[in-house]
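Tutorial, part two.
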Amino acid sequence: MNIREIARRARVSHSTVSRIINNVSTVDPKLARRVRAVIEEVDYRPNYQAQALARGRSHTVGLIVSELSGGNPFFSEIILYFERAAVAHGFEVLISFADSETDPHHVVVCANRMKERRVEGIAVLTFGMEQQLENKPGRIKIPMVYAGADSPHEGVRNIRINYLSGMREAVKHLVDFGHSRIGYLSGKLSWSSMRMRYEALRKAARAAGIPLNKELVAECDHTLAGGAQGMADLLNLPKPPTAVLCCNDIAAIGALKTLNSRGLQAGRDISLIGFDNLPLCSFMQPRLSTISFSPCELADLAFDALLEEIQGAEVKMQSEYKTKFVLRESTCAPN
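Running the prediction step on this input gives:
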């Protein structure tokens, strides 16, 4: 079924059908109703790919995110909110999952594959794996946006993540409670985003006038199992910390499991703070204090930045997203 067949059945020219499909207002309303009735009867759907080729635009953008294993819904929410923003502006989204475990250059493969599918721009929200694209954006030659890159990339828009703002608020809260022996579940420090969070914590501790002892930093997977093991390692120290910050909420929830297994409770026996502010934090027992890193706000920022790049707007090459501390029930004075 094509517009010529639609035109034959509606007894009009195929150019009239084309104008009606594209909502041209000058078409006679009665004629438009007759054509639309035929379109509905035969369940015709326009070939948008062919239209895009004819117009030289695909109205499609690419989104590259980290793979979804580990039980962390953060990237699922990034996808949800990014697609909502794109659809609201008339774009479709081609999604690809970067997996550095199976291929160290997978992000490059994803970006090239998207270019072959004629996307108009790519948002790389992998928080560290965008480093694989160093020196590649110029060759890819389409608008690109990164989030959380730890160093600027020439010709690429970057959304800088201000981890320090939220860390300072969280550390100040703990110090005001009287904590001086603060532990940290760091995640894999080979990831740039995890290194940046760790460095932000170090700066926050220094500003608060307390030490961040290396023995109190447990490098672990940023997963439920990793958080559980990391908390066990800290509790097994001769002198455990009285408060623990975590690289993300999932690790903090894993830490809660270890605390419960030892008869301890966050907010009564030890202070525990997560990172991300996932919706499930409000449903934990106790409700988890955390540092807010909103997937919704970040996805909106990333799409808006990408749209500005696609439209060729005169914009700064770097935006900023500020994290902030969210107080709930999982902190207390040192026991």
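The longest helix spans residues 192-208. In part three we will examine how such features are distributed along the chain.
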